[in-house]
């Protein structure tokens, strides 16, 4: 009960109403005390009228008048003359005087609280203005025990009444909030649960019907979110189906092209001049097609295995990548340079890092080869206290604008004609799997530079 919003609302409402009643209680008890003493002054004035009517009163009658008024003596000031009207013996001396002719709220509250928390039965003097202008002032002496008893009785009744009012108010507010707010919120939660069970079912999208402005805005926002999510799920499903089909096609096409590649090797040995002239182009085209199929299959895997981090000898890995690329360009004027300290080790997955560097170096080599000019590809590495940085730089013609705009977007960021753009997309994904970044530093007519940054994390292996 208390863990629910409605239960907490009920408890908080009760507490706040009680707090409000307590704040009202203090001035109320001060007002009650003032009225109590004013009543005693009025009764004393009425008792003194008997003396004015008859100068000689029987002592027993005078005692009865004072007892009914609840005072010990009465002093009336009329025509600048202060006159003791009624009197009786006082059990003790007067300890305090209270003037009720023009008291401030602060004074009344202070005196009331002091009296409420004091259990002593004192004798006090009370001064006030006679009713109906029957003199200049009237003063009486009275004991405080009956006053405190009356104040306590009044205070208890006020607190009990406050408790009853707070409970009733809290219960009514609870019922109102439950009907106006909590029930609609539970309805929205129910909509969310039903939608979560089958988000692809458009019939389960919420239809806003709340009459409360804020709740209706929440329902409309939820409907917009559910609509977008349903469309995204449908699009994702279509893309998954398309990707599965493309992977199957690429797999079969790769097998076909591999077979064709074997035949082209035989064609290259032909003595026919025309065949010799066309064979290299055919071989290059088939090789690019095989590479595209392999890249598509690699990128299309639903779950790329996460990196297995270990300490990698970066110099040896870079040398392996460079040697592989040198074999691919035996007759081209492309040079390779590596500036990596022999002692430098990086924390990475060796297979993933090899694929990243191979993709970057291969892209650089192909860009230089397409330009038909000599070029150089360099790999250098350094480290700071927080990360390792590997720079791959080439002197090629630079990336075209479309490739820069869709740099890491598969099938859109190809840097050369016929390229798929999968190399950079795969490299970026693998680097992010290490918690690192792959960044294009610059590109232009003087060449291109990519920086690969791998964080050191919280230690080494």
Automatic annotation (TrEMBL):
The enzyme's E.C. designation: 2.7.13.3
Every Histidine kinase domain range: 248-458
Keyword tRNA processing on entry: no
SUPFAM superfamilies xref list: ATPase domain of HSP90 chaperone/DNA topoisomerase II/histidine kinase (SSF55874), Homodimeric domain of signal transducing histidine kinase (SSF47384)
Coiled coil: 215-242
UniProt KW Transmembrane keyword: yes
GO molecular function, one term: phosphorelay sensor kinase activity
Source domain of life: Bacteria
Catalytic reaction list: ATP + protein L-histidine = ADP + protein N-phospho-L-histidine
CDD domains hit by this protein: HATPase
Transmembrane segments: 9-30, 154-175
Protein name as annotated: histidine kinase
């Amino acid at each position: 009960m208390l863990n629910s919003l409605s239960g907490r609302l009920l408890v908080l409402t009760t507490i706040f109403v009680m707090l409000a009643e307590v704040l009202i209680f203090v001035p109320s008890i001060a007002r009650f005390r003032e009225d109590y003493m004013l009543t005693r002054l009025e009764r004393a004035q009425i008792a003194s009228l008997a003396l004015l009517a008859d100068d000689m009163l029987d002592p027993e009658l005078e005692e009865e008048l004072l007892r009914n008024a609840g005072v010990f003596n009465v002093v009336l000031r009329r025509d600048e003359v202060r006159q003791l009207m009624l009197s009786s013996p006082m059990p003790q001396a007067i300890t305090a005087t209270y003037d009720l002719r023009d008291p401030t709220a602060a004074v009344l509250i202070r005196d009331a609280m002091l009296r409420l928390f004091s259990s002593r039965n004192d004798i006090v003097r009370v001064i006030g203005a006679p009713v109906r202008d029957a003199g200049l002032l009237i003063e009486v002496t009275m004991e405080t025990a009956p006053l405190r008893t009356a104040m306590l009785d009044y205070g208890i009744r006020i607190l009990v009444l406050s408790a009853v009012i707070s409970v009733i108010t809290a219960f009514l507010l609870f019922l109102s909030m439950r009907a106006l707010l909590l029930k609609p919120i539970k309805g929205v939660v129910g909509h969310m649960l039903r939608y979560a069970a089958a988000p692809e079912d458009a019939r389960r999208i919420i239809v806003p019907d709340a009459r409360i402005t804020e709740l209706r805005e929440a329902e409309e926002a939820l409907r917009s979110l559910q609509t977008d999510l349903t469309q995204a799920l449908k699009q994702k499903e279509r893309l998954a189906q398309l990707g599965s089909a493309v992977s199957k096609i690429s797999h079969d096409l790769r097998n076909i092209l591999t077979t064709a590649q074997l035949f082209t090797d035989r064609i290259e040995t032909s003595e026919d001049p025309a065949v010799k002239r066309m064979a290299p182009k055919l071989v290059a085209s088939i090789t690019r097609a095989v590479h595209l199929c392999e890249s598509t299959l690699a990128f299309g895997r639903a779950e790329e295995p996460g990196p297995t981090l270990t300490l990698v000898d970066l110099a040896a890995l870079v040398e392996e990548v460079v040697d592989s690329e040198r074999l691919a360009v035996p007759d081209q004027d492309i040079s390779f340079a590596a500036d990596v300290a022999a002692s430098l080790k990086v924390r990475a997955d060796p297979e993933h890092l090899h694929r990243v560097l191979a993709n970057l170096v291969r892209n650089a080599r192909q860009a230089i080869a397409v330009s038909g000019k000599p070029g150089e590809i360099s790999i250098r590495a350094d480290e700071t206290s927080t990360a390792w940085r590997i720079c791959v730089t080439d002197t090629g013609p630079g990336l075209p604008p479309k490739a820069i705009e869709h740099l890491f977007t598969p099938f859109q960021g190809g840097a050369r004609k016929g390229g798929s753009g999968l190399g950079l997309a795969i490299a970026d994904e693998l680097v992010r799997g290490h918690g690192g970044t792959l960044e294009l530093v610059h590109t232009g007519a003087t060449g291109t530079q990519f920086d690969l940054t791998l964080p050191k994390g919280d230690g080494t292996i």
